[in-house]
Amino acid sequence: MTIHRPTLRSVQAPTAVVMIRPLFFSTSKDAGQSSSRSLIGEAQADIDFAEQAYVEISTAADELIRHGVDVHLFEDKSRETPHSVFLNNWLSTHAGGYVTIYPMHAENRRKERREDVIDLLKAEYRVQDVVDYSELEEEQQFLEGTGAMVFDNVERVVYAVPSNHADRQALEQFCNHFKYEPVIFEAQDAEGNPVAHTNSILCIGTGVALLGSDMITDPAKKAEIITRLEQSGRQVVHLTNDQITACAGRAIELHSKTEGLLLAMSQGAYASLKQEQVDLIEQSAKIVQLKLDTIEQAGGSARCAMAGIHLNQREAETEAEVEKLVEAT
């Protein structure tokens, strides 16, 4: 069967991403909760995990480039930021030239925010404004980027599960500023534990959405979300709890200059899918598998390791013009 996938640019799928290649990665999910503890020890196991994470991100970046996606790859060599690879929690970009910086729940993870990443975006893309919500940390309000929020850029809707990582007031402030409609819902796993990050159970692409629908606790809200996604023209792929555990929800749609729409996910996530689910996804986007076994042990996956760039590329300018622009913004 010949599959005809969309080839035109989609507001949902960025053509470029920023990634951070870590050197002192930790697999501990709470490694960033304290700024006083040692974040990576001298044990050989720690060193091995860090090296594996470095290789995984390097290989993933190469694979995306091979598939026609632009990757801006930064190095992180600080022991104080073991989860820097998950930059989507502090950074997002938006059509119209906006860059957003977010308030982080874990004190240590606030050190992951980087001026050099912002400077790169200003230099190579048209940035109208940098909106910085990090001061909300002083009020104990946290909103961890595209981990806490899942964007439907077509319908201008933000889906979010409230948690320590997604404060309702901060979410309302963001939505009011960027003119998104918030859809807030409760979700929990099979053991009754609340979902911490919305992107663990929901991925929205141009023509397909992956949803851990069984985790939504309110049947009426579950029906509303499914209806919204279907009415937006998307096929909804319902993920089981086991598939959510395998990080199938933490995929990200990208746009390749050569292949059209792609859905990047980990090899483990892909292996958890049934063939009929794969077939449904690939009617809309080509699946690209990335080996991310090590970083998934810390709770993140493909979606978490990339900040999509929804900005227009800047035309070639002189070095002096770029420096002047960066200073002005």
TrEMBL record:
<dbReference type="Pfam" id="PF19420">
    <property type="entry name" value="DDAH_eukar"/>
</dbReference>
<protein>
    <recommendedName>
        <fullName>Amidinotransferase</fullName>
    </recommendedName>
</protein>
<dbReference type="InterPro" id="IPR014541">
    <property type="entry name" value="Amdntrnsf_FN0238"/>
</dbReference>
